[in-house]
Amino acid sequence: MSNNTELVAIKKYLHEYSGPDIRIMEICGSHTGAIAKNGIPGMLSEKIHLISGPGCPVCVTPSSYVDRLIELSLKPDTTVLTFGDLLRVPGSRESLREAEGRGASVKMVYSPMDTVAIAKEAPDKKYVFAAIGFETTTPVYALLLDTLIKENIKNVKLLTALKTMPEIVDTLCSSGAQIDAFLAPGHVCVVTGSRVFEKAAEKYSLPFVVSGFDGPGLLASIAMLVKHRGEGVVINNYQSVVDHDGNVKAQELIDKYFCKSDAVWRGIGNVPGSGYLIRESYAAFDAGSAGLSEDEKRNKACSCDKVIMGLMPPEKCPLFGKICTPENPQGACMVSPEGSCNTAYSY
Ligand code: SF4
Tell me, what's the pLDDT at 335? Predict the structure, then answer.
C-alpha cells in the first residue's frame, strides 16, 4: 500500500469511527499547536475527543515563580534573562513585562547558551536565567551549568521551575480526568526514551503513542490510540528520532547537575517528584528555586487549572476571547502559541 493510500484509509477510519466515545489527551504544547494547524479536529468522528494537557512550559509555570523572578529583577545590578513567552505570563500581581515599568531589569534571549556571552561581557553585573521547561530543555540547562563551571563564570545563577512528565501523567490518571489514551510527547521522548510511559500504561491499562508533529504522523498516531483503546501499551510512532532508552548522554548530563524534586504546577499545586532542582553541590548557581508557594491567580475567574487538567475546553472559560486574548492574557494558557487557550483562540 502506498503512503497516500494508507493516509486515505486512516482518514476514512477516523472520520467514520462509530465505537464508544474516546478521550485522547495530547500532553505536549507543540502537539496542541500542530493538531490545530493541520485542522485535525475537523477530520475526526464526533466520537473522538482531543483534549489538551499540561505540556506547555509557560502554562504550567506557577505565578509564585514569576513573582520570584520579578523580585530578583528589581535587585540592584541584577538582570533576569528569559525566553520571550515568559515575559507576559501573569504573576500574582503583574508580569515581568509590567514590572519593567517600575524598574525591573529583564532581557530576552533566544537560547540559554546566549547567557555565556552576555555574562562574560559584563562580569561586574549579576544575571539570573529563568530556566523553565520539561525533560526536553533540561539538558540544555545542564550544558549551561557545565559551561559556566568550565569557563569559571561566576556572575550567573539559574532560577529553575523544571518539570517531568511521568509524575504529572500519574496525577492526571488518578484525578478522574477521564482520559482513555495519550498522545505522548515526541520531544520529551527524544531525551527520556519511550520507556518513560511504560509504567503508567501498565498501571492504568491505557495506550500511549509517541508521535511526531506532521499531520499524517499525528493522524496515524490517533488511529493507533483508537485501535488500542483499553490496552496498556506504549507504541513508538516517531522512530526517526525516538528510541526505547532515549539519549543516555543527555540523561547523564541532567543527572550530574540536577536531582529529582517536588514541583509546583500552575493550577494543579505541588506534585511530588515531578521536577528537578540543581544539586546541593552546585548550589552556588541556584538563585533560590526551592519552596515555591502554591499558585495564586491574578484574575480569579481564570480557569487555567481546569484547562490544564483537561477538565474544561478553553472556550468554556467565561473570560475566553472577551477580556482574555493573546494581546491581553489573563492566564498563562493564553500567552504561548503552545497554550491551549491561545491555540483555541488563534484557530
Ligand atoms: Fe485563563 Fe484566559 Fe484560558 Fe480563561 S481563556 S482559562 S482566563 S488563559
Answer: 86
